[in-house]
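Progress against Task 2.4 (sequence-to-structure conversion) is shown through the following example record, which the project officer requested during the mid-term review.
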Amino acid sequence: MFKAFGALVAAVAVLAGLVLIGAALIVAIGAQAATESACDVTGVGAITAVTDVSGQGEGGIGFEVPAPGVERLASLKNPPVPVPERIKVMYVAGADRYHLPWALLAGIGMEETVHGRARAASSAGAQGLMQFMPATWGRYGVDGSGDGIADIRNDADSVMSAANYLTAAGVASGGPDGVRRALFAYNHAQWYVNDVLFYATAYGGGVIAGDPDACGAGGEGNPALPPISNDKVRQMLTWAQTHLGEPYVYGAAGPQQWDCSGFTRAAFAQIGITLPRTASAQHDWVAHGNGFRVVLGQERPGDLVFTDSYLGPNQVGHVMIVLDPTRKLTVEAGGDEVGNYSYAAWETHHLFSIWRVGAAA
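Structure tokens generated for the chain above:
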């Protein structure tokens, strides 16, 4: 069986103009058949096209900034005020770097200091335009002004650091619930979350690039998902290789045009496993109970490689399937088309990681 597997994959690769050593693809990945995942996201809810983010990587889908809940406080008596142009430039810069709607940052700025009009340190010691505690600043403070210094009292630094914190807290992961969790992490109060969302909506809302479905954002996973057998890996990779040369299209999920996560999702569907729609959500899904991380150098065919790509700091933006670990080759929707590419160049990316779906054998 193993010898036939190597010959089959090598033959498919040769047809694509790529000569592979079949033996390099022969590995033991477990003995049991994979079963359908508990994370069924075939109906992912309201998907919105993302057209303001360019570049190869994550699928072009997202979701609207969620509406506020009923429990509010400051926003009940303090209506949103116009954003000073100088401050708006900073919100937009933070939004561009971290791929967030600028209105979400404006919502925080309005809630915290009325866009800098009330910037005195809080009774708890929070400082600056976006009101950071010094300890939090020490971890998440970044330079937004370009002077090489992350200064808690610098407005540009404060806004950029708020965007950094939100993405690190998972604002783009898990749909609207992920947004609410990230805002709750910023200030542990439901009225605060709803105030910010009220203001953000007033300033125009916007689309967050990411999977609108919350599946995978938790930590329970599917304990019934066994290791993936060699037969299943062969089936998945054989299917993937038959699509070589099909065009990469931003936001496409088949059947003959693909983005990276749409292609990966379709490949795993061939063996009865339903992955979430986007690279970020797929990473969260496998990292929270549906697989385990693999050390570089120990990857096997069928493993998933994640990296940050164009979505910016703190956000997974690209996913690849390992084809030949000896030569560090993938099968993926990348570049201009589905192809076999090297993942060696990705190894220095901030969020580079390798994961195996299913339990350890």
